[in-house]
Structures are given as C-alpha cells and as structure tokens.
Amino acid sequence: MSTIQHLSQRDDKKDQEVEMIEDKSGPDLTSLDARDTTPVVETCFEGYTLEETQAMSKKLVRSIDFRVLPILILLFLLNILDRNNIANAKVAGMATDLKFGNLDYNNAVLFLFIGYVGMQIPAGFILAKIPPTFFLTGAVCVWGVVSMCCGFIHTIPQMLALRFLVGVAEAPFFPGALLILSSFYTRKELAVRIAIMYSGNSLSNCFGGLLAAAIISGLQGKGGLAGWRWLFILEGAVTVFVGASIYFVLPSYPSKTKFFTEEQRRLAIWRTTQDANGEPDEGGEKSLIKGAKLVLKDWKIVMLIFQQMFISCSQSFSYFFPSIVKSLGYDSQKTLLLTAPPYLFAFMASVGVAISSSKMEERALHIAIPMLISTIGNALVIALPKSNVAGRYTAMFMLTLGSYCAFNLSFAWLASTIPRPRIKRAAALSLVNGLANASHFFSPYFFPESDAPKYIPGGSALAGFSFMVAVCAITIKYVLKGQNRKMDRLDSEDKPYTGSLEGVPKGYRFMT
C-alpha cells in the first residue's frame, strides 16, 4: 500500500502540517525536511479513503467520457468531412465542371494547408488568452460557412481562395481540442481518448464516401446544381448548425465545467495535478512566447515534430484515396462506396492499438509496428499487377492502417512528454500541429493525374515516410529512456532539472 498524506493549513499561516500513515513495508518518510519544496503526491483526495477516491475518480472520468469526448469526436468528424469532401467531389464531376488541369486539384489541396499552417501560431496566441471553447465553436461556424460557399464557385481561383480560408478557420480546432482533453485526463487515460477523438478522422472518411454517394446520386441536378455542389452546401450547413449548438455544452477547463459539482471540479484538478507529481496546472506564465521558448529549448520536441511530419506525409493519401480506389476499374458511385471499408478497418485498429498502448503504458512499438504494416501495404498497391484487384484492394486496407494508429498516439506521446506548464504544452501542440502539417506543402504533389492509375512515385514516397515514422518512434523510445535515467540520477544527487528537462516535475517519468 502506498503512503497516505493529509495536508491541512493552519489559520493564516503558510506552514503545512504533514501527517503520514505508513504501511510497514513502505519507505520511511517521517524525515521529510520542512524546507523541501518538492510537490507532494497524494494518494487520496481530501481525506477520502483510497477506495472512495478511486470510485469517485472512475465516476468523474465516466462523466467526462459522456459529456466532453462525444462533442469533440463530432466536431473532429465535421472538421475532416469539410476538409476532405473535395476528394469525393473530384471524382463526382467537379474536376470536369471546373476544367481542372493536371495540377489544379493538387494546388487546391495545397492552399488549404497554407492557410492551416499559417494560422497555427496566431491560433496558439488566441488559445493562450481566451477559453478554447469560445474560439473553437466560432471557428467551426466559420469553416462551415466557407465550405458551403465552395458549392457556388465557377472558377479555379475561387476554389483556391475558399480552400485557403477553410484551412485558416480549421487551424485552431485540433490543438484546442487536445488542450481541452489534456486538462481533463491523466497521461494513462489520454492516449485512448485522443485515439477515440481522432477516430473521427477515419470515421469521417468512411462515412464521407457513403454520404457523398447518397448526396450526389440523390440530388444531382436538383435546383439546377450538380451533385458535387450539394455535397459542399449540405455538409457545410450541418457544420454551422452543430458549431452554434455546442457552445453552451462544451467546457474549456475543469475549473469552468458547469455540469460538475464543486467537489468534482476540485477532484478533476487534483487528478491532473497528482498525475504530474503534485505540480498544479493552473495560473503561472500566460505568454505564449514564453511557452514557445520553452519548447524550442527542448530538443525532444524537435524529434516529435519530425515524427509527426513523417506521419502527416504518410497520411496524405487521404486526399487522393477515391482516385486510388478508382484505379481498380469501378465507376464513380462504386468507387465512393469502396472507400468506406478500409477507413472503417483503420478506425477499429486505431482504437484497439490505443487501448493496448494505454494498458501497457508503451508508445513506440504501438506506433512502429502499424507503420511497418503501412509500408508493406503501400509497396503492394504499386507492385501488384493492375489485374490483381483483390490483392490491391487488400493492400489498401494495410496502407490506411498505420498512419491512423500512429497519429493519435504520437500526439498523446507529445502531450505526456510536456506535463507542465500548460502554456508550454499549448505552444507545443500548436507548433507541432502547424509544422507537421507543413509537410502538406509538398505532399499534395505525390499523386498527379499523369501518374494514374498506379501512382508509383507517390506510393513509393508514402512507403518511405511510413518506414521513417517507425525509425523515429524507436529512436525516441531510447532517447526518453535515457532522459528517465538522467532524472533518476539527478534525483539521487538532489539536483534540479535543467535544459531539456526544464519544467518537468520532480519524480515525473516519460512514457516510452
């Protein structure tokens, strides 16, 4: 049994009286120096027993799972739906109607990410100053309106301008959502929740194809508009409605959560504080510039940025997946339907891998192994003969697997590697999300129409990036193990954490 510590303050004094109830087999803590400023890790919450604390915590997590997580999943689903619907519109006649040349579609994908990456740092500044919920819901409504406007364009420049604005509006969502999640969940809980939220990506692509097939076939010619135009209009309208609706129900931080009781708010803050070895995540430095400086001094984050960039590159097939599937020889309607099963498979695999990662408290192998499977899948798609439809379609399941399993775990790994302060974590999430997505400045050109139907250069590039993710994950694992050993040594010598370990609470150890 671990030691139970009760802290009580005496009147107006700041001195703390520490009572300890020890298991006979536990360490002797009675010699704790009163001058020791190391944060105290408590086993129990406000005098409750260990069993009561665990029961209260379980109930609280269940409440968060049902009240916060579903909202973020829905918003992320809409985020990806409005971002990727251009891929379905392309095979449904948009390219013909707008007279796209060889690289016009690739440019449209690029312009979205110019806006997306360019807005990351400004979005980070805003997230550091105002509640994430306010900013996120406003962004959702804006990108929904802009997406609707894509249904009324008639020229390629109009498409490029609107795709740029969609990227600007979508930029705050993912770092803001991760900031909210990391404020409610502990490290062990976070990976599964990010995986579940990120499942909105694969689910959106899965149902996006089915929904596109239904809208395009059902509304083709209605009101004098082509089916692909209705796709943008209807999906954008749903996004605006949902964005306006969730403002009143999505909390920003535990201390501001209305559906918690006062005791639950204190418990929620206590849980994340204890998860960071007793160092609170409230108050302190508010400048995002300060947070960015802390990030840039931490070379571990640079490695995670490269890993995330490689994952983003390996996932760039999603903007061309309908075109890749169409290389099997089916018409547009069947192609859109066939895009769904690989994404559904990726969704189920990503949740399973995240649960396994959480239970084993391991990150690197849970990223590396799926990415190696994706490496093989990409190679098979381009190596198998065009006549081998079943083999190539099976390989498409494999290529979707890795990046969707790795992406959410990589972000969870990042969040748990920056436990404190919150401003550093907010800056890191914005920087990593922005710089990782900078890979899309060149990845849209992996699949030009001139390389159809097998897209050999693009498939080869994706295989290479998938393999590099696996290499990065294993490298980071052993680097973090070295950092843990260094912290063990500094603790034994009673020395402070400096350099790349600055901001890490005493006694904290990185997941590998």
Automatic annotation (TrEMBL):
Transmembrane annotation, as ranges: 64-81, 108-127, 134-154, 160-182, 194-216, 228-250, 301-320, 340-357, 364-384, 396-415, 427-447, 459-480
Record domain Major facilitator superfamily (MFS) profile: where: 68-484
Pfam families registered for this protein in UniProt: MFS_1
GO cellular component, one term: membrane
Main location: membrane
PROSITE patterns with a match to the protein in the record: MFS (PS50850)
Recorded GO MF terms: transmembrane transporter activity
Gene3D superfamilies: MFS general substrate transporter like domains (1.20.1250.20)
UniProt keyword list: Membrane, Transmembrane, Transmembrane helix, Transport
Topological type in the membrane: Multi-pass membrane protein
Keyword Transmembrane helix among record annotations: yes
InterPro entries: MFS, MFS_dom, MFS_trans_sf
Cell location: Membrane
Protein name according to UniProt: Major facilitator superfamily (MFS) profile domain-containing protein
Upper classification of the organism: Eukaryota, Fungi, Dikarya, Basidiomycota, Agaricomycotina
